[in-house]
Amino acid sequence: MTRSIDLEERRRTVSEAACQVLARDGLGALSVRNVAAEAGLPPSTVRYVFPTQASVREHALNLVFDGTAARIDALPASLGGTDFAHAVLVELLPLDDERRIELDVYLALGTAALTDPELRPFHDRVVDEMRQWCVRILDAVGVPAADTEYETRRLHAMVDGLALHVVRLDPAGDATWAIDLLDRHVAALAAG
Question: What would the mean pLDDT of 57-80 be, rounded to a whole number?
Answer without folding.
Answer: 91
